[in-house]
Amino acid sequence: MKRKILLILLLSLVLVSCTNKNNDNEKNIYTSIYPIEYLTKEIVGNKYKVINIIPEGAEIHGWEPSMKTVASMSDSQLILVNGLGLESWADSVSESVGEDKIVEVNKGIDYIKLTEGEKDNHGHGDYDPHIWLSIKNMIVMAKNIEEEVVKLDPENKSYYRENLERLETNLKELDNKFKSSLEEYKGKAIIVPHDAFGYLVRDYNLKQIPIEGINSSSEPDLGTVAKIVDVAKNNNINTVFYEYGGSEKIAKTIAKEIDGKIKEIYSLENITEELIKNKDNYYTLMEKNLNNILESFK
C-alpha cells in the first residue's frame, strides 16, 4: 500500500512534465511483450500507434517500468498484457494508469498448469505464461485484441475485422507448416534453454527437456546437466538449443558430452534491434524455430 501511495505522489510530478510533450491527437496502445505488439500492429494498422513497454532485448522476467514509462502509459487508450503472472509490475501501476485500461489477452486459452516444482522456479503463478509460443494461442489472442480495439473505436470495426481475418489466415498457414512438417516426429524430444516451450510442443505432440526453469533466471547444477546428458544419449538426441541472444555456455557443455551440436531458438517474448533491421517478425522467427527443430531431428 505504501508503495502504491508513493508511486501516485511521484507520478503527479512526472505527469506534469510529460503531459505537455504528448500530442493530444495521437492515439496510443501499449503492449507488454513483443508477440502482443506484433498482433496489435497487424490489427490496428494506421489507426493507432502501438508501443511496446519493455525495451528491445530486455529480459521480461522481473522487469519493472520506470516512473516516466508509467506516466506515458497513463496517457494511453489501452494497455494489453499477457497475464498469468508474467507482468509482475501490473498490479503496482494499475491505480496510476487506470485499472480499466489494463487488459489481459489470454481469455479462452487452454493453460498449462505448472507442477509445484515448476512453480518454485517460476515465481509468477499457477500456469505457464508462455502462451504466445503456440500459434493456435496467438489466433485466440488476436481475436481478444481485436475485440478490445473495436470497443475503443467501433466506427472502424470492419477495418479491424479485415485485418484480423488476414492475420488469422497467415497464422493458420504457419500452424499448418508446423503440423505437416512435424507429423512424422511425434513423441520426439528437444533440449531447450528453459521451460518455455510447453505450448509449442503440446500443439505438435513433441516433448521438451528444459535446461533451466520457467523464468530462465537460474543456471542448472552439475547434477541436472548430467541427467540431461543421460536423457539425450538414451533418446539419440544430438542437438541442444540455446536462446537467441543468450549464453551458449551450458548448451555447448551438454553438446560436447553427447558429441552433438547447438542451435538457436527464439522464445519471442522480446525482439532485438538486429532482428528488426533484418525485417524479422513473429512469423519469420517461428519459421526459423521450425527449421531448426526439423534439422535437430536429422
What do these coordinates show?
With 298 residues, this protein is an alpha/beta fold. The protein has a domain of 114 residues: Rossmann fold, CATH 3.40.50.1980. It contains twelve helices and eight strands. The strands form three sheets. The protein has a four-stranded parallel beta sheet with strand order 2-1-3-4, with helices on both faces. Strand 7, helix 10 and strand 8 form a beta-alpha-beta unit. The longest helix has 26 residues. The radius of gyration is 20 Å and the shape is globular. This is Zinc ABC transporter substrate-binding protein.
Question: What's this model, at a glance?
Answer:
It is built from 12 helices and 8 strands. The protein has helices spanning 2-19, 34-44, 67-74, 90-97, 116-122, 135-152, 157-182, 198-203, 222-234, 249-257, 273-277, 282-296; strands at 28-31, 49-52, 78-81, 102-104, 189-194, 207-212, 239-243, 261-265. The longest helix has 26 residues, at 157-182.
